Amino acid sequence: MSLTKNDRKFRSKIGKDFPARSEPESLPPFVEAIAEALRIEFGNTPSTIKTVARMTNTNERTVKNWFDAKNGPSGENLVILMHNSQEVLQAVLLLSGHHDLLVTMKVTATKNKLREMLEMLDELSSSETP
């Protein structure tokens, strides 16, 4: 099958390239914050990139770009990441200015840990008494 004359041409015939940028664009804080949260939560190894790619049903190269702060996740993928990562959830809450929700979330988590510890103490004390 041959290409028609109306097809899109991918290479320039005269050999010109796109002009280089004079100074690199600063990344939005969103991309940097999500990348940092992903690295904290999951690490930065090839296996974790594969895990996150499977989790979000996304290409591994796309996930690698998230970890490298080259791109940020789409809305749907961000929701999946927030569901599976406390660090990403906290980063989104901070970026959106919902510090009160972040404090509430931390207080609830602390209460749950305290409740677990009290239950463990009760179990230990009940096992010690004859």
Describe this structure in words.
The protein folds into 2 domains: 27-97, 434 Repressor (Amino-terminal Domain) (Orthogonal Bundle), CATH 1.10.260; 98-130. The longest helix is centred in the last third of the chain and has 30 residues, at 99-128. It is elongated, with a radius of gyration of 24 Å. With 130 residues, the chain is mainly α. Helix 2 crosses helix 3 and helix 4 packs across helix 5. The protein is 64% helix and 0% strand.
Key phrases:
elongated; 130 residues; mainly alpha; single chain; 0% strand; 434 Repressor (Amino-terminal Domain)
- Contiguous runs where pLDDT drops below 50 for at least 5 residues: none
Count of DSSP-assigned helices: 6
Secondary-structure element order, N to C:
HHHHHH
Report the portion of residues in β strands.
Answer: under 5%
Which CATH C-level class of the largest domain is it?
A: Mainly Alpha
- In whole angstroms, the N-to-C terminal distance is 87 Å
Shape-level CATH architecture of the largest domain: Orthogonal Bundle
Secondary structural class: mainly alpha
Shape by Cα distribution: elongated
Q: Average pLDDT across residues?
A: 84
- CA radius of gyration is 24 Å
- Total strands: 0
Helix content: 55-70%
Query: Main beta sheet, described?
Result: none
- How many separate structural domains? 2
Task: Could you tell me the CATH topology label of the largest domain.
Answer: 434 Repressor (Amino-terminal Domain)
